[in-house]
Amino acid sequence: MLVRAGADPAGDPLLVDLSRLDGVLSVTGDRAVARDVVRNLLGEIARLRPGTPVLVLPATDGSAPLMLPGGLEVVPPMATPPPRTASETPRPLRGAAVRGPVRGLIILAGEPDEQQRAALLALCGSRGAGWTGLVCGDAGESTHWRWTAGADGSVAIPVLGVQLTVPA
What's the pTM value of the predicted model, to 2 decimals? Predict the structure, then answer.
């Protein structure tokens, strides 16, 4: 699913493919801009795929919850799937992303605690249950993409080698 993440220095829209995220997007740096980035992505998803299931994890660091755009389907908390057995072949979590449908989203408006990091690891990523996480903070081992937000509205996306500005 291609979504508009912001604009490049020339003002052209920059699209990212969330179906290649394969885990969690951690947006760190300036908290207000990080929240704008995640809100923008949620708005794009609501526009392109209304009815997408969204699980909202409560922020344990005091961060206010994000307002979700209309069109997304908030789902109740679910049980974390059991860990994989030792007999399964381990695969790298942060290796090359695997293209797959965005089954649902897990949203966290602040830094996850250890229990939330474990849930993100179990539900998202190449060894997860097929969900995609959008976190305003560092999600630890479950992170596949790390974007860094600046106070000036800029966002560095190192994996793509680009700098963009988030839409207002």
Answer: 0.85
